[in-house]
Every structure is written in structure tokens, then in C-alpha cells.
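To close the chapter, one final illustration. This time we ask the reader to focus less on the individual chains and more on the assembly as a whole: which components sit near each other, and how the overall shape emerges from the parts.
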Amino acid sequence: MIPGPASVLRVGLMILAGVVIQIACLVQIQVLGGTVDIMPLVVAAVALYAGSVPGAATGFFTGLLADLALGGNLGASSLVLTAVGYAVGRYREQRDPAHGLTPIPVAAAATGGYVLAYAAVSFMLSIDAPVSLLVVREMFMTVVLNALIALPFFALARRLLRPALLVEPGPRGRRDSAISSGPIGLRGLEV
Amino acid sequence: MYDKTVRRRRAALLIFVALSIGLLTVYFGEPASGGLHAIQRGAQEVLAPIEEGASRAFKPFRDLINWTGDVFDAKSENKDLKDEVAQLREDLAQAQTAEREAEQLRGLAGLPKDELFPQGTEPVTARVIARSPTSWQSSVQIDKGKSAGIEVDMPVIAHGGDGGGGLAGKVTSVSGGTATVTLITDESSAVSAQVMPDGAAGIVKPTVGDPSDMLLDFIEKGRPVSKDTTVITSGSRSDRFESLFPRGIPIGRVTEVDAEERELYQRVHIEPFADLKRMDFVQVLTERGEEQAQVLLP
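The assembled structure is written out below.
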């Protein structure tokens, strides 16, 4: 159940790069009132190619690093991204999607789930100020922008993860192999 | 085998969710000097050089994209000149980066000389190296910390888009070489303020998701407030909202006044002077200073 060092290193570097690039660069690039947020994309990519347990773990540590780096409410991002990673991973395990465009709806759903759940958690943690409708536009634009960059982003993530994966990801032209495809996950962390 | 896999999977989810909730609970329950806060400050200290390096490295890329976005609709280049234009864009982005930074630094240097601004505040200039990615928490990280004399609760000012500038937030966490600044647009922010020269006092609160629109609340209906007047920090202290800011720091300009018939208070919309979305530099006021005679109201 303990993942191999190569798997941990690869996913760890992806998490670190994702969080640093997000908070130091991408958050300042506004497109039609929204910004790209690659943190849910990192989590969704690992979950889609490695399954629910690596997905949930990646979500937890991505959120933890983001909250640590920015002084946010420790645990809030972890909670939301853990759920996102687990959900995407379960989708992979149950449906085993093979279509080449799968990353687009997965990215949109993961990002949508992330921004909505994070908003809900923020409200639960006593948001006292009035909320502008512009925040809805910002959330919507983040989902759209993430969906737009999903294909190249997931392709890059697959390339980075490939040596650590138990099952070669990618289109196989069949959808009914969810149960028979054997264990998936990262090397040392089979599910 | 199948049951074991399912159990293992569910156990993993349960562990991560329980860890997250546990972290949240402990984090909220402990004081700012608690263990998790200390770990957070340590992590920020460790990550700061990486963030600063990434921020500097990606700055030309950011500025190029932002600049391209701003002028995209206005451009109609000849096809033969595209290669040259691409090169010029890159050069221009670098030049604009330098110019924008210089303009911000000039604005920041000039702000404490404003006639309303408190004197003797000993401002320390710092570079913004990271920003919160969500609208729900509005904070930035700066590259100066305890070693530069910065402490928690110190006010922070920033340059404005129109050449002026004003209050940006306050320091909420500080480590040796970095500090976290919670902006006045953060949902938890509340700044006691006063309209100049009318004298009406209220509390400036943010509108989550719209950093260009803030609310000056709790102003009695009898106190007239005019459009385009300036709102400054009042420096007052009350039981509910303690003002940590010295009197006289400009906050924003009144853009609209709501006065509902049934309400006891009128609600004033203000636009902050500080350009909170695109600031690259800020100044931390390390001394409280003394207020100017001009802000002593009758």
C-alpha cells in the first residue's frame, strides 16, 4: 500500500509545480473576469490516470500545500480537493473512459465541483460580507478556462505520470473493461 | 479481494477527510501562536524563495498575456510584419513591466507625502510574491518579514491605478523573511472610516468577488454624504471593530449612496484607491505616525 519513491516524487513535483505556478503566476492573468486554476486539474489528472486513492491523496496534499503557502484556513482546500480527487478516481474506476476528449468534461466537472464546494466551505466558515454576483462569473469563467486547457494539460500530466502508472492510460476504443482491467493506481499503491 | 480493495479505498478516503476536518477544527480552535499556525508560517518561509523565483520568472509571461489581452481588439497588423511585431511585443512587455513597477514605486513613495496622510509612519517597501487564488480569501504574500521590522497588524498601503493609492490591508502573519497581508477586500475585513470633509463615520466592508466596490456601512441617515468625496481611516476604536490603522490613510472615493426608507443607516459604495488586483509592490507602515492637522474634523 506504500507507493514507490518514484511515484511519490513525480506526483509531489506535480503538486509543488501546480501550486507554485498557480499562486505566483496564473492567478494574476485575468481572462474575461476569470483565471485558470490548475490545482483541481492536477488532482483530476492524477485521479483520472491513477484512480481514487492516489486522487484523494493528491487532493489532500495539494490543498494542504496551497493553504500552507497562502496562510488560508488549513484543511479547507484539502477537504474539497480530496473529494474532487476521489470522485474523479471513482469515475475512472467505474466507467474506465476511453474517449480522447474525456479530459474536457472531467476538467470542467472537477473545477466546477471544486469552486462550488470551496464556496460552500467558505460560507460555512462564517463569511460575513455581502457577496457580489461577479463571483459567480469568476467561478464560471474558471470552469470554462480550465475546460479549454484540459486536453494539453492532461496530456502533459499523462506524460509525466506514465512511468509511475500500473496501467497505460489512453484511448483503447472500449468502455466495458472497468472490472477486468486489473489493478490501477501508482506503482506501490494498487487499487 | 474485491472487498479488501473497497475497504482500503474507503479507509483512505475516510482518513483524508478526517485529517482535513481535524486540521480545520484545530486551526480554528487555536490562537495565532498555536502549533498549526507556526507550521504554516514555517512553510511560508520555506516556500517564499520558490514563490519569489517563480513570480519573477513568470512576470514577463504574465505581462505579455495581460498586455495582449488589453490591446487584442485594437490590433490589425500586416501579415508581413507579424514576426517583427511579436518581437516588439516581447520588448514592449518588458519595458511596460519596468515602467509599471517604476510608476508603482513612485506612487508609493509619494503617498506618505499626501497632506492627509499620517506622518512618521516609517514605510517599508515590499514586493508581492504570491496571491490567494480565490475571491473568498483575499490575501497576498510579500517578500519582507520580521527581519525588515514588519509585525502583525501593521497597515499596508498600495499604489492606485490612477496614480494615487491608499489602504490595501494589514499584516496578519509574519515570518523571518515574508509576511501575509490580508487585503481590505477579504471577507473578514472591517475598517473604521470617515468621509472627508463631511465627517460621517462608518465601517468599510468588502463585497466578496468585486474588489472595485466596497461598502461604507453604519452611517446615520442624518449625515449627508456626497459623491466623489474621499474616505479615510478614522483611527477610532470600538468594541466590535477595533481600528488598527492610524487616522488619515486614504481608502477610496464615494461612488454611490443608498438611503433606503426603512433603514436606520445609509449605505455608501466606495471604490478603493489602491489597485488591489494588479499591485506588484506595497508599503508596510511600521510606525503608527501622527495624524495631520488637516484631518482633525470640527
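Residues 172-181 of chain A have pLDDT under 50 and may be disordered. Residues 103-124 of chain A form the longest helix (22 residues). With these observations in hand, you are ready for the problems at the end of the chapter.
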